[in-house]
Structure formats: C-alpha cells, structure tokens
Amino acid sequence: MTYTPSASLPRKRSRSLGEEVMNDLRGKIEQGIFQPGDQLPTEPVLMAEQGVSRTVIREAISRLQAAGLVETRHGIGTFVLTPPPKASASDFLMVETIRDVLAMLELRISLETEAAGLAALRRSDDQLAAMRQALGLFEEYIERGESAVDADFNFHLQIALATGNKYFEDFYRHLGTTTIPRARLDTAQFAEDKGQKYLQQTNLEHRAILDAIARQDPESARAGMRMHLSNSRERLRRASERESAPERQDNGI
Fold first, then answer.
1. Which CATH topology does 17-80 take?
2. Which of 4, 89, 97, 243 has its CA 20 to 30 A from that of 235?
3. Selecting from 3.40.50.620, 3.65.10.10, 1.20.120.530, 3.40.50.300, what CATH number does the domain 98-242 have?
4. Helix (H, G, I), strand (E, B), or coil: what is residue 71?
5. What is the rounded CA–CA span in Å between residue 3 and residue 236?
C-alpha cells in the first residue's frame, strides 16, 4: 500500500496521547500501510498528522519499539520490522503474584547482569543515544504520574540490543513486558517507597547503569544492573513477608 498523510486526527483524553498515537501507527503496520522495511514518516510529519507534540511522538515510537514493531536508526529514521510471533499460553504470561514477580526477578538478575557488562563493552554511540532517549521518556512518565512500563522495558531492551548478541535480544523480546513487574502487578502499592518515590528510586538505579555503559565500564555496569534488580527483589520480598504476616497470625502460625 502507498502511505498518504492524512489531516490531523482528533484526540480523546480517555487514554494517554502516546498510547493513542501508538495504536494508530500499530494499526497502519498491521493493515500493511507500513510494511517491513518501510521508513515511518519523520517526527515533524507525524506531529502535524497526529496533532501532538514531539514528546508524544517519541513516546509512541518507544512503545512500538518495546512491542518489536519498529527500530530506530539514529540519524536515519525509524523502520518497520517484521512483526514478532504472537505469544502462546506457555510464554511466561502467568506473572500475577508477588511470588511470580520474585521468580522473574531472579531470572532477570542472571540474564541482565551479563547483558549490561557486554553492552558496556560493545555499545555504539547510536545505541547509547537510544538508551538515553528511553530513560528520558521514563523520566517524563514519572513527571506525569504514569507507570512508565513501556519506557522501562525499552531501556532494558536497548541494553540487550547493545550486547551485539541476538540471543539476548530474542530472549528479552520473547519475555516481553512480563520482565517489568509493574506490567503484571502494581508493585508500587506493595513497596515501602510508595508511588512516585518508588519510580524515582528506580530511575536513579537506571541512571547509574547508563552512566557505567556510557563510560564503557563493564564491571560497574554489571554491578549497577545487579544492584537495581536485587533492590527490586528485596523490596518485594519484604513486602511479601508483610502481606503474609496477617494470614499467618489468623491461622495461628
């Protein structure tokens, strides 16, 4: 199909503008208006067509990246990928309880600690820029009081991409946003640091990882990633104990 830009679209306020724009672009990809290998319109063109700001367009692109539908080649543009296969019932989808989240974090510690070290050694300037953009979006989500799941996932995905090992990327995409506890469970409500404070601490941990990768310091990158994920696990472990304490008392344990 040939893509013809349309007039600026009316926008509802029932969901975030980034999600609306993402859904519109996803629909064009699924309909074949944008096909694998096609370059998406430039940010100014999308801003005019969608009637939104540059920040919203970048948020939508970040969501599409997290879904494995596009990739951004810095200095060139954003290109449509062959859609990933749909997840089956056996694809790590049952991450519903604190115990499930703890188990997922154990897996992530073993996988992503090494990924961070490899990314520090192998990352390109473009890949570093992609990490910074994902982290910038994460910070914007925090300022708006949103959960930042997509930007969080995209930050970790960019680290996997920077390893230069396609199996890290494949495995991370296979897991999808189930790797982010908040995608399946409102972890902030269980944490001692509530709401935005919880996300701000997460952001500081992300920043430490990014700084180490920027310095090309693999040991610090590994240590930063292990600390980040271990902190998440420890916060939830303590929360799990607090949640189960009343039940133990009720049962006379």
1. Arc Repressor Mutant, subunit A (1.10.10)
2. 89
3. 1.20.120.530
4. strand
5. 47
